[in-house]
Amino acid sequence: MRTRPVLVYDGDCAFCTTSVAFLERHLRLRCAIAPWQFTDLDSLGIARRRAEYELLWITPTGTVHGGVQAVARLLLHAGKGWAYLGGMLTLPPLRWIAHGVYRLVANNRSRMPGGTPACALPAGHRSGPRPTE
């Protein structure tokens, strides 16, 4: 059993990688962080399709939070003022609004600062290392 949560992101996406690097620099993260391409998704109970679709936060007990709720859990876990913001992201109607914003950003990550055209491609069409299936 894991003792720390795990943050799983898309390591082939420059915008995602830049965002995670920003979080590492500015938040006191107490979790394992790994691109899904180099993670044993089966051991975490995650389908590859889901990992390709959204950021994931996996608790030590195996509960999986995706998308903006993964961001909320990350912020809650970071503590201090970040926890307040994370808590706000779990409450309706902000939760619903944040979900819409997350999907808008995720669906357009190739157009975001730090994004590349590869971010827009389905995972199977990107260059770079491939996970074993």
N to C succession of SSEs: EHEHHEEHHH
**Average pLDDT across residues?**
88
Instruction: Give helix % range.
Output: 40-55%
Proportion of strand residues: 5-15%
Q: What coarse outline follows from CA principal-axis ratios? A: globular
Number of strands: 4
Strand order of the largest sheet: 2-1-3-4
Kindly, what is the distance between the CA atoms of the first and last residues, rounded to a whole number of angstroms? 23 Å
Summarize the SSE layout with pairings.
Elements: E1 6-9, H1 14-26, E2 32-35, H2 41-44, H3 48-53, E3 56-58, E4 64-66, H4 68-78, H5 80-88, H6 94-107
Parallel strand pairs: 1-2
Antiparallel strand pairs: 1-3, 3-4
Helix pairs in contact: 4-5
What do you see in this structure?
The chain is an alpha+beta fold. The protein is 43% helix and 11% strand. It is built from six helices and four strands, in the order βαβααββααα. The protein has a four-stranded mixed beta sheet. It starts with 5 loop residues before the first strand and ends in a 26-residue tail after the last helix. Residues 125-133 have low confidence and may be disordered.
Question: What does this entry show, briefly?
Answer:
With about 130 residues, the chain is α+β, with helices and mostly antiparallel strands. About 45% of the residues lie in helices and about 10% in strands.
